[in-house]
Amino acid sequence: MADVVIIDSGGANLASLRFALGRLGASAEVSTDPERIRRASHVLLPGVGAAHDTMARLRQHGLAQLIPTLRQPVLGVCLGMQLLFESSEEAAAGTTHTPTLGVIPGHVARMLASPTRPVPHMGWNQLEPLRADPLFTGIEAGAHVYFVHSYAAPVTADTIATSDYEGRFCAAVRRGNFRGVQFHPERSAGVGARLIANFIALAE
């Protein structure tokens, strides 16, 4: 049985992630304890809110230093995925960017709005996998998942799936044992449930 820990990043999606895991028969502990997180077999880094506030919370608990050193499967969700990159344009007043965890090269930028594509990007959109990954086992190209975000990571060599909203953006990323999804699997019905099941089935 997987020993899943959800990092308590202060986001509002902590409970919904626990419920999603529970529906799959997996329990998860929510924690900010570095040693508990280090012992876990799988780690989820969720996030809802501002990058600078969440990074401040992670630093307060010594987790900004810990997370990049983890060796087990790690999955960042929504803002949690963005925090795996080097920096974000979502910054505190008087600053131009927020330094983030630096696990994955790249910089998160605010999405471009248009009359037909308002920001935030909110609702169902399609996934377009760029290469095979165990995270997407049993999930077809073009599957719909649920997004809520105003900032997005660029498409880079580490991107494993994209989506389109006034231009392509990184919908899923992988670098070593670190993966991230910009969408909310806990709100993405059967596709999201399959992705979470795939994640907890990953071996170290």
What does this molecule look like?
The structure is a single chain. The protein is an alpha/beta fold. The protein has a single domain (4-200), classed as Rossmann fold. It is 23% helix and 28% strand. The radius of gyration is 16 Å and the shape is globular.
CATH class: Alpha Beta
From the N-terminal CA to the C-terminal CA, the straight-line distance is 13 Å
Number of strands: 14
CATH topology: Rossmann fold
**Rg, please?**
16 Å
Structurally, the number of domains stands at 1
> Major β-sheet, in short?
8 strands, mixed
Percentage beta strand: 25-35%
List keywords for this structure.
4-stranded mixed beta sheet; globular; 8-stranded mixed beta sheet; 204 residues; Rossmann fold; alpha/beta
Brief digest:
This protein is an alpha/beta fold and 204 residues long. 23% of the residues lie in helices and 28% in strands.
Compile the SSE list and pairings.
Elements: E1 4-7, H1 14-23, E2 28-31, H2 34-39, E3 42-45, H3 51-60, H4 63-66, E4 74-77, H5 79-82, E5 87-88, E6 98-99, E7 107-110, E8 121-126, E9 128-129, E10 144-149, E11 151-152, E12 159-164, E13 168-175, E14 178-181, H6 189-200
Parallel strand pairs: 1-2, 1-3, 3-4, 4-14, 5-7
Antiparallel strand pairs: 5-6, 7-11, 8-10, 9-12, 12-13, 13-14
